Amino acid sequence: MYDTLGAMNRRPQLSIVAPNASPEEAAAVVAGLEQFMRATAPTPVPAEPAPDRWQQAALYEGVAREPQPASLWL
Q1: For residue 12, what are the contacts with CB-CB under 8 A and spacing of at least 6?
Q2: Cα–Cα distance between 18 and 37 in angstroms, integer?
Q3: How confident is the model at residue 27 (pLDDT cuts 50, 70, 90)?
Q4: Angle at 67 between CA 61 and CA 72, to 5 degrees
Q5: Is 39 helix (H, G, I), strand (E, B) or coil?
Q6: pLDDT tier at 1 (50, 70, 90 boundaries)?
Q7: Whole-angstrom Cα distance, residue 71 to residue 74?
Q8: At residue 45, what are phi and psi to the nearest 5 degrees?
Q9: What gap in Å lies between CA 44 and CA 34, rounded to an integer?
Q10: What is the DSSP letter of 66?
Q11: Phi/psi at 31 (5° precision)
Q12: Rounded to an integer, what distance in angstroms lies between the CA atom of residue 23 and that of residue 31?
């Protein structure tokens, strides 16, 4: 199976838009939000085991064959 979300950056860019906040206050709020996001992030899903090479070859062989015409004797 292909991982379609592996290359996507799922972490948002945080910034504070508050005209009265000092740089230290804004940095503290952003740091708190980042810590919360790390603490509540879902656990990574373990990778699927590699498919059996014999089974994969059998599947490819079964798909690659040309369809057989229907037998008149059946």
Answers
A1: none
A2: 21
A3: confident
A4: 135
A5: helix
A6: very low
A7: 6
A8: -80, 130
A9: 18
A10: P
A11: -65, -40
A12: 12
Residues 6+ apart with CB under 8 A from 33: 14
Quick one: residue 51, left, alpha or beta (phi over 0 = left, psi -120 to 50 = alpha)? beta
Residue with tokens 């206050």: 25
Amino acid at 40: T
Q: Looking at the whole model, is its pTM more than 0.85?
A: no
User: Token match 């656990």: residue?
Assistant: 43
For residues 32 and 40, what is the distance between their CA atoms, to the nearest angstrom? 12
Distance of CA 47 to the CA centre of its chain: 10
Rounded percentage of the chain residues whose pLDDT exceeds 90: 9
